[in-house]
Each structure stands twice: as C-alpha cells, then as structure tokens.
Write a structure and sequence with these properties.
Elements: H1 4-21, H2 24-34, E1 45-49, H3 53-60, E2 66-70, H4 73-82, E3 88-89, E4 102-108, H5 117-127, E5 128-139, H6 146-154, H7 170-177, E6 181-182, E7 187-191, H8 192-208, H9 222-245, E8 253-262, H10 279-285
Parallel strand pairs: 1-2, 1-4, 2-3, 4-5
Antiparallel strand pairs: 5-8, 6-8, 7-8
Length: 294
C-alpha cells in the first residue's frame, strides 16, 4: 500500500502532466524545440533545464542517449521530483562533464538565470565536440513593450521570480555566442497579444503558487492538489482564447530559438581607431561622408 506522501507525489505529478496539456505556450515551446531535433536519435545529447520537468520528459522521448542537468538547486528539486533519473546541478558555471562529450547541447530558458552568461557559454562550448551544435530557447526582450510594462506592474517578469535578467535581444544573444558559434538567423514566436493574456494567467498562477507552476517543491501538501485542480480548470477555460490569440503572428514575438554550430573559440575583438574610439563611437559623433562633427 502506498504511503500518503508517495500518493500525494504521484497525484501532483499527474496534475503537472495535465497542466502541461492545457498550456499553449509550453506546448509551443516543445513544438519549436522538437522541430530542431530531426535525425538526432543517435546523437549524445545534453539538456540544461530551468526546471520544467514535463517538457524535459517529452523532449527526451525516443532518445536513448539523453542527459538532463539543472541550472540551479530550485530547478533540480523540480526535475528530481518528476523525473525518474536524478539530475546534477551546474555550480559556478561548471558543467560536470568532460571536454567534447556531447554532440548536441540544448539550453532551455537558462541563460537569463546565469550571472556571467558569457563564461557559461564558454563552458557549454567546452562540452560540445568539434562537429556539435547548440540549441537555445530563451525569452526575447522588448523593454518598451506593453507586455514588459504589464509584467513590471504585476511583478510577473522573470527577475521577479528569481532570474538575473528578463531575457535577451537578438544582439545581446549574438554577443555572447559570436566567439565560439556560428550564429544563424534567430527564429521568434509567441506574439504580443498571446503574451499579454499570459501575463494575467501568470498573475493568477502566482496567487496559487509563489513559484512558476512547473517548478515543483519537495514540500507539496494535500492542499496543493486542490490548487492544481482549480488552476487546471481555469487553464481549460482560457485555452481557446489563447489559441485564437496565438494566430496573430504579425505582432512582435516574445520567445526565440536558434540552432548554431560550434566552431573553434576565437574572441572577435572590435577594431579601434588611432585615437582609441570604436568605429561605432566615431560614426555617432561624425556625419558619414563628411569630416566635420556636425
């Protein structure tokens, strides 16, 4: 006979799976990442996760050589609560594997949780072999957008839940990757209308749980089962509206994903003029095509 604690854990994991099924944004993220995983079943893959255990479970299906590690202790507890295999934690930007061990590295919503993201990318570069790839899924930052304003007002932005930064612009992501990876076009998705509705959904979720709903605590109680049920029922009601909003693809997008091939690490230094200024600085202060500062 199962103990009360084991039974609660089993039921909470079932609710986690159900909540994923009515989360359009998480399902879209899964679909986008999977679109980059064609013909990789024979590769040795490392996933660095921010704690969405259901997403990790669905990604690793049909992959025999898949390893998942967590970006911090909070995400590790969540992954270990749901997944069968225990996950290791990345401490001080050190990934606990040897040089060139993996063919493919997948980083899911982790960069914004890392204090020194450039150093972290260097460490990611180390564990990928010479012919390897990296897939990065991350939040796209629009500081002046309505979504960013609403997230600030209702305290649902990533930094409000413990992240170091709220996401990245395409240029910021390029700058931390350019020294060791060929960066192709960055694909974006999840439009502003969908994300606006998601702000209010996140606000309601925070009224049930202090952390994102997909982060599972080791201290869940029976009362949490009722919260999951209520949240699931609410998500079912809003799902059709979320689906309709998701079709407005002409609006700015707030999530991004890229796949990039590894190359030899070689810092690209910005050229300087004789007076020490960069070309960009000189351009700002001088009208192009003239020699005069006006």
């Amino acid at each position: 006979m199962l103990s009360s604690k084991t039974k609660i854990k089993s039921e909470i994991n079932e609710w986690q799976t159900k909540l994923f099924s009515v989360s359009l944004r998480r399902k879209n993220k899964l679909k986008k990442i999977k679109s980059y995983l064609n013909n990789v079943s024979d590769l040795k893959i490392l996933e660095i996760s921010s704690g969405d255990a259901v997403l990790s479970q669905k990604l690793m299906e049909n992959h025999n050589n898949w390893t998942t590690v967590s970006i911090n202790e909070k995400s590790s507890k969540s992954l270990n609560y749901y997944l069968k295999n225990k996950t290791e934690i990345i401490n001080n930007n050190k990934i606990p594997f040897s040089d060139g061990e993996f063919d493919l590295l997948i980083i899911i919503d982790c960069l914004k949780n890392v204090l020194d993201d450039y150093e972290f990318i260097q460490e990611c570069h180390r564990v990928i072999n010479n012919n390897g790839w990296v897939i990065i899924s991350e939040r796209k930052k629009y500081p002046g957008s309505l979504v960013a304003l609403l997230q600030h007002i209702f305290k649902t932005k990533p930094v409000s839940t413990g992240a170091i930064r709220n996401g990245y612009t395409s240029d910021q992501l390029y700058r931390i990757l350019k020294d060791g990876f060929d960066v192709p076009e960055i694909n974006s998705y999840s439009n502003a209308l969908l994300e606006t509705l998601a702000v209010f959904n996140d606000l309601i979720q925070r009224s049930f749980f202090k952390i994102p709903v997909w982060i599972i605590s080791n201290y869940n109680k029976k009362e949490d089962l009722y919260r999951y049920r209520n949240l699931y029922n609410l998500s079912k009601l809003t799902y059709p509206l979320m689906w309709i909003f998701s079709k407005f693809n002409f609006l700015p997008n707030h999530e991004m994903i890229l796949k990039s091939r590894r190359r030899r690490w070689s810092p690209r230094r910005q050229p300087k003029l004789v007076d020490g200024r960069s070309i960009a600085e000189a351009t700002i202060n001088t009208r192009i095509g003239t020699a005069a500062p006006f």
